[in-house]
Amino acid sequence: MKQPKSTGNQQGSRSANRLGKAPATSARELALQVLQEVAEHGAYSQISLNQRLQQAQLSGVDAGLATEIVYGTIQRKRTIDYWLIRYVAKGIDKLSPWVLQLLRMSVYQLLYLERVPDHAIVNEAVNLAKKYGHSGISGMVNGILRAMIRQKADIIPENIEAKNAIERISFMHSYPKWLVKRLVATYGEQVTEAICEASNLPAPANLRINPLVTSREAVMETLEEEGYNVRLSLLSSLGIVALNGGHLASHRDHIAGRFSLQDESSMLVAEVANPKPNSQVLDLCAAPGGKSMHLAQLLQGTGKVWANDIHPHKQTLIEEQAVRLSLSNVEAIVGDALQISERFAPDSMDVVLLDAPCSGFGVIRRKPDIKWTKSAADIVEIANLQRQLLQEAAKLVKRGGVLLYSTCTIEQLENEQQITAFLAEHPQYKLDSNWSESILKVLADNNVIDDSFNGMLQLLPHHFYTDGFFIARMVRTD
Ligand SMILES: C[S@@+](CC[C@H](N)C(=O)[O-])C[C@H]1O[C@@H](n2cnc3c(N)ncnc32)[C@H](O)[C@@H]1O
């Protein structure tokens, strides 16, 4: 492939220091500010994006475009770089960081946003290069992008050259090699590829209706009348999937507590817990409160859900949810779950939920930064914390009570292996596969479980296009 010569001084210019100081005036400028902040200062994309969107006066369409560019560029970074290095003669590591981000986000648009005309992408990139750099930089950006456009027909997955399957999946689906290797070792090549592909797709909004005040049909009808593209959730009888539901958090029915926003996979947790009326329920890692609220709704105003989290500022988040949903049987408390047995009597809870902090590899479609920031060492560290949390949780469950463990990851060390090790050390607990008929049926019909199902469920992102999620239901049998 022909490599155009890069021109101009590629070091940053003084004006590049201005990037991000003033609110952005366009979608792409805002995207560039966020990408730079993430890459150079380790900011979380979600937080940086939300802050900058609040400061800038962008239209809804532009805010949507900026969001798409930020998440897409981070999500597809490895594939973008695979192509980009073939067009930057001196190597992309010689570029000023902001110029690299500008090129990455422009290549993302060229390769993945079909609705945006190529000339508009180049013009916008050149304008930003002129605003923050000198003419050498804008000339170089122009040259690289135009060369890529000329050869666009060759920039296709089939032309990716890789030494082996792991490298191919890594380049094609934009995943770090170490993670692909680990996934292939667990799930095999074919399933790993399906996981990576599904995790690159945008997540639709999922709603869980509040059964205490409305029905799924009523909420569906309202949303359909307003032009939302909605369908029933396969996994939860309270769930609705809205393909174009990006702004549903500010919908009046959400504010009024008629529904909550929660991934379909997470809706399974409370349904699998299935608390009996008047139960005492302890949610050890509860913030922002999605599962606590669901459990409280299933209790229909009876019993009590103790919603605990270690961070004091998150207590307010939980309390706000309870108020929004008019739930009086939730109490938000602050504490380290590693010492929770100092606060509650042993054997006192009907249900203990440990929705554990985890590596998050099941939610890459919502938080693509995870791909590039987490390491194999992080998995070992978090698995160690989960092990200690489980030991503490086990002290509080009554005889005959339920211990539920869940994570939003697909990493076995944190899931099946974690539970297997726990059960070996806690013979009083047994896995329980006695889940509701309707859940078992949908899982079996979609070949997610078979006759060997034992009470541990690993949902992968491509099974139902949900988050990747793990649930284990255990009962105390001594
Ligand atoms: C996966 S999130 C929980 C999501 C929540 N269950 C929901 O459905 O909305 C994990 C939570 O664990 C909390 N956490 C982490 N370590 C903790 C600890 N040692 N004790 C209590 N909470 C902890 C974090 O603050 C975070 O809010």
TrEMBL record:
Q: Which UniProt keywords apply?
A: Cytoplasm, Methyltransferase, RNA-binding, rRNA processing, S-adenosyl-L-methionine, Transferase
* Sequence segments annotated as region (Disordered): 1-23
Query: In which residue ranges is the amino acid composition biased (Polar residues)?
Result: 1-16
Q: Keyword Membrane on this protein? A: no
Tell me which CDD domains the record gives.
AdoMet_MTases
Q: Which GO terms describe its biological process?
A: methylation
Keyword flag Cytoplasm: yes
Matching entries from InterPro entries are given as: MeTrfase_RsmB-F_NOP2_cat (IPR049560), MeTrfase_RsmB-F_NOP2_dom (IPR001678), NusB-like_sf (IPR035926), NusB_RsmB_TIM44 (IPR006027), RCMT (IPR023267), rRNA_ssu_MeTfrase_B (IPR004573), RsmB-like_ferredoxin (IPR054728), SAM-dependent_MTases_sf (IPR029063)
- GO molecular function annotation: methyltransferase activity
Matching SUPFAM superfamilies: NusB-like (SSF48013), S-adenosyl-L-methionine-dependent methyltransferases (SSF53335)
The Enzyme Commission number assigned here is: 2.1.1.176
A Pfam short name: NusB
Catalytic residues of the enzyme: C408 (nucleophile)
Outline the extent of the SAM-dependent MTase RsmB/NOP-type domain: 195-477
> What residues does S-adenosyl-L-methionine bind to?
C285, A286, A287, P288, G289, G290, K291, D309, D336, D355
Q: Name the reaction it catalyses.
A: cytidine(967) in 16S rRNA + S-adenosyl-L-methionine = 5-methylcytidine(967) in 16S rRNA + S-adenosyl-L-homocysteine + H(+)
Instruction: Quote the subcellular location field of this record.
Output: Cytoplasm
Functional summary from the UniProt entry:
Specifically methylates the cytosine at position 967 (m5C967) of 16S rRNA.
Question: What NCBIfam families does the annotation carry?
Answer: PRK14902.1 (NF011494), rsmB (TIGR00563)
Entry-linked PANTHER family? NOP2 YEAST -RELATED NOL1/NOP2/FMU SUN DOMAIN-CONTAINING, RIBOSOMAL RNA SMALL SUBUNIT METHYLTRANSFERASE B-RELATED
Q: Which family does it belong to?
A: Belongs to the class I-like SAM-binding methyltransferase superfamily. RsmB/NOP family.
Record's protein name:
16S rRNA (cytosine(967)-C(5))-methyltransferase
Q: Which organism is it from?
A: Paenibacillus yanchengensis
Quote the gene name from the UniProt entry: rsmB
